[in-house]
Design brief:
Largest sheet: 7 strands, mixed
Strand content: 15-25%
Number of strands: 19
Structural class: alpha/beta
CATH class of the largest domain: Alpha Beta
Number of domains: 3
Helix content: 25-40%
Strand order of the largest sheet: 4-8-9-10-5-6-7
CATH superfamily of the largest domain: P-loop containing nucleotide triphosphate hydrolases
Radius of gyration: 27 Å
Number of helices: 21
Distance between the termini: 67 Å
CATH architecture of the largest domain: 3-Layer(aba) Sandwich
Length: 552
């Protein structure tokens, strides 16, 4: 094997123009770039395992390189040599054991792929996408490799780039927002929306159309809301996105939510770090019957917690059935999941009645939002089933009063309810750029901690400061100047004990119920968050955001 070819160069060329998987499948590898003087294009040497392969892939390679300003020459080396080079290049894999976060696009490359889409021939057309399949089953989504789309036209490459780069940046949601003369893309990272890139209107509309096609939506329909799902893979890592469009003043707004099905994420040991809360919650979900509620506002991680609980229950001996709107996680195993479709009469309450005729052991009702669903869930719990559900409420005690407001009789609530887990998500302070400082007087009063003890403070930069530090090469690579990286949960678990049952029957106030629960050992959301501050996982300012009333 020749020693003139540098593995770092090969890896770079693969990442820029192809993909490792595509090269393996086609027994192709880029070896080097021959320098040239303008106006000539640089020439990339492409090795193929058999020169006869060029009849099927030669034009694709030439077009791909030409679109990026390169020419190519082909040579033939043995397939074993190509695979050897690819094995060495895989040591610098984009994706390694730490996952997708290590994939790195240069910001300029992302912007260029989006801007270049405006130069595509027939810029007003949104047709010609060749990656849509003809599968009619609405519940089946083909898992296509994104590397295939990276080799497509400019708008396909732009779409694939946005999906991969947003996952790399740790975004939970991608917002594509039309304005009068441009399209703005924003990413939600750690619960906060951040500007990503602004592109001209035409390539922006084409990007939306391309993503709609990938999600199996109707491209021609722009006046009605649509829902869909994108399922792709990239170098053996699955990427699932839930997609939603809504017609607006200047066009369709599109939101894509990244659904992380990582086993490490759907794990109670990972989610709930307090051993006492975690063990008590496990005792509740392992009871034979009753109803278990997880409460919190939108985006607080309720679905993730329940998915983790169900995975623990899935031991092959139980009939577990879920009704969800929408289905966010593919739980696998022996868990049967069902999508709520209100247009067809398939509501939570109707599904619950159907489930009771299916010999269930465990039932998940995605959300309790009306009296019918609430009472039906209680009835199911009373008849020997274990029922999980979510509720929009600010605290565990508030969840009880919410159910009473839904006209659930107090006697039925005390007979069926086993426990309520309320939760929030706090941003984790970046370990790389955060600084330590003493706790101030006002912060000590708020947290109950001793003034002067060391706590972590996030280094949050303005847009101008981020730009300047990036130019100087000193921008934090972990958090990109936001001061935070990742999120951690804060929880409070209210167990239905005899004193709590008596308080429910007497219909005491939320504050009174909460005081009883705390006297029996319940850790409040605020107290849990204070522990996280002591562990230097989050900041006082993050905790203050969820403590906006006297009951936290």
């Amino acid at each position: 094997m020749s020693n003139t070819y540098q593995i770092s160069t090969i890896r770079s060329l693969i990442d820029q123009h192809f993909s490792l998987q595509w090269c393996r499948e086609n027994v192709v590898i880029p070896l080097k770039v021959e320098p040239s003087l303008p106006p000539k294009n640089q020439v990339i040497t492409i090795a193929v395992g058999n020169i006869s392969y060029l009849g099927t892939i030669g034009n694709t390679i030439k077009q791909r390189l030409a679109s990026n300003g390169f020419e190519c020459v082909f040579i033939e080396i043995s397939p074993d040599e190509i695979q050897s080079y690819l094995d060495q290049a895989s040591n610098e894999r984009i994706f390694n054991s730490e996952g997708i976060e290590n994939y790195d696009f240069a910001e300029d490359d992302v912007i260029k792929s989006l801007i270049d889409a405006s130069e595509e021939e027939g810029s007003d057309s949104v047709e010609g996408f060749d990656f849509d399949d003809s599968e009619d089953d609405e519940f089946y989504v083909e898992e296509i490799d994104l590397s295939t789309e990276m080799l497509g036209n400019k708008i396909q490459r732009a779409a694939a780039t946005v999906l991969i780069d947003s996952c790399k940046k740790g975004a939970s949601d991608i917002h594509i927002e039309p304005h009068e003369k441009h399209i703005k893309i924003r990413l939600r990272r750690d619960g906060v929306l951040q500007n990503y890139v602004t592109i001209p209107k035409i390539p922006g509309l084409k990007l939306t159309a391309c993503l709609k096609n990938m999600a199996k939506m109707d491209i021609a329909e722009k006046r009605a809301s649509q829902d869909g799902k994108i399922r792709r893979k990239f170098e053996n890592q699955s990427l699932d996105f839930r997609c939603s469009t809504a017609p607006g003043k200047y066009g369709e707004k599109m939101v894509l939510r990244y659904l992380n099905n990582d086993n490490d994420v759907l794990n109670l040991d990972t989610l709930i770090d307090n051993e006492n809360v975690r063990s008590n919650f496990r005792k509740i979900i392992n009871q034979a019957n009753g109803i278990v509620i997880v409460s919190g506002p939108t985006g607080s991680g309720k679905s993730t917690t329940l998915a983790s609980a169900l995975r623990e229950k899935d031991n092959g001996e139980l009939n577990i059935m879920t009704a969800e709107d929408p289905i966010e996680y593919d739980m696998g195993g022996d868990i049967q999941q069902f999508q709520v479709l209100r247009a067809k009469g398939q509501t939570f309450a109707n599904f619950l009645r159907t489930f009771l005729r299916q010999d269930p052991d465990v039932i998940l009702i995605g959300e309790t939002r009306d009296p019918e669903t609430a009472e039906s869930s209680m009835d199911a719990a009373e008849t020997g089933h274990l029922v999980f559900t979510t509720l929009h409420a600010n605290s565990a005690a508030t969840s009880l009063t919410r159910l009473l407001d839904m006209e659930v009789p107090p006697y039925k609530l005390t007979a069926s309810l086993r426990g309520v887990l309320a939760q929030r998500l706090l941003r984790k302070v970046c370990p790389s750029c955060s600084v330590e400082r003493p706790l101030s007087d006002s912060e000590a009063e708020f947290t109950g901690l001793r003034m002067g003890i060391p706590v972590r403070c996030a280094t949050c930069l303005s847009a101008d400061e981020k730009t300047q530090r990036k130019k100087e090469g000193i921008l934090c690579k972990r958090c990109l100047g936001t001061g935070y990286k990742g999120r951690v949960g804060t929880y409070e678990l209210l167990k239905i004990t005899r004193p709590i049952s008596n308080a429910i029957r007497k219909q005491l106030s939320t504050q009174e119920i909460e005081e009883i629960a705390i006297s029996e050992g319940m850790i409040s959301l605020k107290a849990y968050g204070v522990k996280l501050i002591e562990q230097k996982l989050t900041t006082v300012s993050e905790l203050s955001k969820i403590c906006n009333d006297d009951h936290n």
